[in-house]
Write a structure and sequence with these properties.
six-stranded parallel β-sheet, seven-stranded parallel β-sheet, alpha/beta, 397 residues
Length: 397
């Protein structure tokens, strides 16, 4: 019997798996491809439309439709976010060409459903007619914008963020009501969306990762303290800067031989300068994040703003790497401080936890084993894929 078709929308190609966002995108495509013939419609940088398709996508049998796109300049998007019909984060990803290509694919394929990754891709719902849309929420957009606004205070950027948070809240509620199903990444965010959009169909679909990607640990000497993140995400940059200023000097004073390694894409000049000044290493575009986990002694997650689920924490648990993190960083994952990770509210407390672990490495044994067990139980890719397909089957045609 011929398999039914599905269309998945992403704001960028989901390969290579070089950051948490791409891992989350890959999960939705891999899961859909287990039961459907998948067409991936994705933005790509102009000029890259004819590049070879990633082999893993070819092996999955995914058809890729690339739409060249470059987000508008910041001032243009900012003004549109104030006076246009969409808030900033949606307006920034609007493309008439993408809407047209999606409409064409729906007409040709008659898919069982269209899955939109992120709220801004759900804004293309008008292009799919009566085809059910599934919205995969990687975070609750208005919540992280509200937190970002609080962090910025009554500065111009903070005031702009407050306006955007209100617009995002309205758009988020409207789109959650318009789609057939919203998949939140954690239970707490599912409840927020149900309250925001009464009557909307909302379920929880956790992050799913390939546990086999993470090799056995082989920590190097002197100890490497890893701060791994995508530095194109402002909360990650803000957290790293704060830790470099308030936490890392304390670690260096207590363990001068230890190395702090900031690994992740797109570190801005401000972070590079701060890392160099603090004696930390910057490693942008690392070949393999699982290898970074294998060589490290611990993972720092200094996060004081944001929303969603921190994929790097799930990865570290899969890699059996001790985690030192703020409470917000572990929000919604169901983790218990001391059992699954070492917690610090402030940068200084994070530093103290790291020093205690460096002096007594056995302290990490319990959290490491508990973390790996939880990763196997909750976040294995095949199990999460089965859940995704079961949930989608309830609304697919």
């Amino acid at each position: 019997m011929a398999r039914r078709s599905a269309i998945v929308l992403t704001p960028r190609l989901p390969w290579p798996l070089d950051d948490g966002g791409r891992i989350a995108l890959w999960q939705t495509i891999w899961a859909a491809a287990q039961e459907y013939d998948v067409t991936l419609l994705s933005f790509v940088p102009p000029g890259s439309e004819t590049e070879p398709s990633p082999r893993p996508l070819i092996e999955l049998g995914v058809t890729i439709v690339r739409v060249p796109f470059r987000p508008p300049p910041l001032p243009v998007a900012a003004v549109s976010g104030l006076f246009g019909r969409m808030p900033y984060t949606l307006a920034r990803y609007w493309s008439a060409e993408f809407a047209g290509r999606l409409r064409e694919r729906v007409d040709v394929l008659t898919p069982s459903y269209v899955l939109a990754n992120h709220l801004h891709m759900a804004s293309y719902i008008a292009a799919i007619g009566d085809t059910p849309m599934v919205l995969r929420q990687h975070n609750v957009e208005h919540i992280w914008m509200e937190r970002h606004a609080r962090e910025r205070g009554f500065t111009p950027s903070g005031l702009y963020a407050r306006l955007q948070a209100a617009r995002l809240k309205g758009a988020e509620g409207s789109l959650c009501r318009a789609v057939a199903l919203t998949l939140a990444i954690q239970d707490g965010e599912a409840e927020i969306l149900r309250d925001l959009a009464p009557g909307a169909c909302v379920a929880t679909l956790p992050i799913g990762i390939d546990l086999a990607r993470y090799p056995p640990r082989r920590p190097v000497e002197p100890a490497v303290l890893l701060l791994a993140a995508s530095f194109s995400w402002p909360p990650n940059v803000d957290g790293a800067l704060r830790f470099l200023s308030e936490g890392w000097p304390r670690v260096r004073a207590g363990a001068p031989e230890a190395r702090l390694r900031l690994a992740g894409k797109n570190p801005p000049a401000s972070l590079i300068k701060a890392a160099n000044r603090a004696g930390a290493e910057i490693a942008a575009n690392v070949p393999s994040m699982p290898d970074e986990f294998a060589r490290a002694t611990l993972l720092f997650v200094p996060l004081w703003a944001g929303a969603g689920a921190r994929v790097k924490i799930v990865e570290a648990m899969a890699a059996r790497l001790p985690i030192v993190a703020t409470p917000l960083a572990c929000e919604g994952l169901g983790l218990t401080p001391g059992t699954h990770y070492l917690e610090g509210e402030t940068a200084a407390e994070l530093a103290n936890q790291a020093l205690a672990l460096l002096r007594d490495p056995a302290r990490s044994n319990g959290p490491v084993h508990a973390g790996r067990a939880m990763a196997e139980e909750r976040w294995s890719l095949p199990a999460v894929a089965r859940l995704q397909n079961e949930l989608v089957a309830q609304v697919a045609r």
